[in-house]
Model the fold of this input.
Amino acid sequence: MTDKDYSKTSKKSVHVYDANLADGSDLRGFFESNSLVTATGFFRLTELYTGLTSTIFTTLHNDMKKDKVLQILSAGCSDGREAYSVAMSLKKLVEKSQISRPFAVTAVDINKNMIQIGRKGQYRLRRDELSKIDEYQEFFDIKEERLASVKPDITRMVTFKSADIMQPGILKYFDLIICANLLLYYKKEIRVKILNTLLQSLNKHGYIFIEGLGSRYMKNVGLERILPGSHFFKRLMTE
Done:
């Protein structure tokens, strides 16, 4: 949903937004059926997958207790391409590096239609996606006209849920939260609300990948950028 779409609801502030998103409300029904993140695709953000496979996953693995499942949240997952991309990249990394670390991906979106698409795991690939999935073709069944199905060994790693990530207490707890395509659709007041709610679901030593808020603001709320030029952040540790 864009700012223009949001303005059509005549909700003046995040507080009014909360009050009108109760179960069964007309506004909630609108969001569940129409809210859509359009900037998505398999392996769309190079910095996300590069940072995840080169640094973040290994660091989390080393900091965690043996055999603990590494929990990952894809917030505002749209049709699931991002969540599946995360699962594919990490499965490939684990097999290549022989890291003994189980992981699970939870993909959440308020749009129930998108969640259903994600659960099916069937996509009409865009032409620009074909080159990006080239090294991951082992995880797809690709038919004619670019129709692709994600294989079961990947789909079972991802759990899809329809939920409003602006509602506190719904999701807990994650070692890595990815919110890559969502905040730019909202005004700053809503962006701050989403970030604060997500941080409630982030483990103490976890990481968050998030776009749409500047470094100065992130530092003011106790987050530091981990990789130069990236959108990976971690809580500032105080003595």
